[in-house]
Amino acid sequence: MTTASPARRIFYGWWIVLGCGIMAVVGWSLAIFGMGVYIHVLSEQRGLSIGLISTAVTFSFLVNAACLTSAGTVTARLGARPVILTGAAAMAIALAGLGYFSQAWAIFLMFAVLGVGRACLSATTISTTLAPWFERYQGRAVSTALLGASVGGMIATPLLLGGIALYGVTAAFVLAGAISAVLLLPVALWVIKRTPQELGLLPDGGAATSKVTIEQAKWTLKGAMATRHLRTQLLGFALAQSAQVGFLSHHVSIVAPFLGESGASIAVSIAAMAAFGGRIALARFADKVDLRLLTGAVMLLAAVSLAYLGLSSSRFSLLLASAMYGLTIGNLTTLAPLLGRREIGARSFGLVFGFISAVTAIATAFGPAAYGLLRDMFESYAPPLMVAAAVNLVAAFVIVWGGRKPLPSPK
Question: Under DSSP, is residue 314 helix (H, G, I), strand (E, B) or coil?
């Protein structure tokens, strides 16, 4: 007679992935995809110019950039709990403030608070949280967690616009902030753990009592940034994400004149669904492919999509271009930490990638303002979309060229 072996328990790291996915839903829905709604609603209902609000959005991303290095460092040293709690509070305060205030100075202040919240719930925080938990499955884990960003994109615009239609701007924004806090508090307090060793485990679920050891390279920030690999990561993603963040902030305003508010909501949701599908594919293959070549291909598709969108005016073309670009949204956001983690390693990831994210975020902060100012100057979104397409072509070349030589030893 044989006895059944006990059922294998799910590795706790996958519960960390789930918690990080909830962080991504909140962070991306309210601080990324929601930006398009804020620009549209505040300009239409509060009488503020698109250029002014776009500049406030840029200020938000600059604040985000200033906080990213700290978010990565604090997460690496103390765990993600204090960072998530700060993010939950910042989101609730910022959304309530945007609902109540209409003065320019207050709008800038609330967008600044939103920038703090975005940094706390960013890919930097998520990737640093997951870094100690996975080695072989790092790509799958990060890609899976960041599916939450695509979910946020799918639900943010229709829920925000629907809430505004039902309850008005003030009540809808306050409710959105309150819901974000309700979702994040249980994750911070009961789900997140710092390392697998706390639970007697090793990365990927190995038992801590095994004799397996994992050698991890340790980089200094100066040594990492002296390599062509890290410099091209920074430049390539800074360029491409500037174009992306600018587009996401203006997506509703770009398509609403042709599709109306309901059609714009559909376009944003289609882009988010495409991003979701792209991330699922990436989660399956991320640990098996050349991430440099894949990133270059994603940036090339982004360039084609933005150019197509700039030349489009029909409903079908606008929706198709939104879907095409949506495929790149999720993958581009996910590939940045994946490429950094693969080339840097877990030991120095929080420090080095936090710095890369901060500098990249400074560059991306100017994306929304650049779109807005070019749109006001030419009274059309076609010029900024064409400029963004060219920026993506340059970024694709930089990324692919940067990985053509072996990474040197850590310094």
Answer: coil
In-domain check, residue 213: no
Angle between helices 147-167 and 13-28 (to 10 degrees): 40
Task: Choose among 285, 254, 249: nearest CA to 365.
Answer: 249
CATH number of the domain where residue 371 is located: 1.20.1250.20
213 three-class SS? coil
Question: For 345, left (φ over 0), alpha (ψ -120 to 50), or beta?
Answer: left
By the 8 A CB rule, do 247 and 305 touch?
no
Give me the helices (H) in 32-122, please: 34-46, 50-78, 81-100, 104-120
Please state the separation of Cα 192 from the chain's center in Å.
20
Domain hosting residue 190, numbered range? 13-207+218-402
Q: Is residue 6 part of a domain?
A: no
| The pair of three-digit structure tokens given for residue 253, joined into one six-digit string | 């305003």
Instruction: Quote the number of domains for the chain.
Output: 1
Q: Are 322 and 268 in contact (CB under 8 A)?
A: yes
- Across 230-268, b (16+ Cβ under 10 Å) vs e yields bebbbbbbbbbbbbbbbbbbbbbbbbbeebebeebbbbb
Which residue, 276, 349, 391, is CA-closest to 129? Answer: 349
Residue 193's nearest CA partner among 78, 86, 88 is 78
How distant, in Å, are the alpha carbons of 20, 46, 68, 385, 390 from that of 249?
23, 18, 20, 13, 19
Instruction: Give the Cα separation of 225 and 77 in Å (integer).
Output: 21
Quick check: is 260 in a domain?
A: yes
CA 100 – CA 177 distance, rounded (Å): 13
Is residue 256 one of the residues assigned to a domain? yes
What does the radius of gyration of the chain's CA atoms come to, in whole angstroms?
21
Mean pLDDT of 289-301: 94
Q: pLDDT (tens digit, 9 = 90+) per residue, 296-311?
A: 999 999 999 999 999 9
pTM recorded for the entire structure: 0.79
C-alpha to C-alpha distances, 184 to 120, 137, 149, 220, nearest whole angstrom: 11, 25, 14, 33
- Kindly report, residue by residue over 308-320, the tens digit of the pLDDT: 999 998 999 999 9
Question: Which candidate, 189, 355, 301, 322, places its Cα nearest to that of 254?
Answer: 322
Give me the residues paired with residue 201 across strands: 207
DSSP state, residue 187: I
Q: Rounded to an integer, what distance in angstroms lies between the CA atom of residue 149 and that of residue 33? A: 9
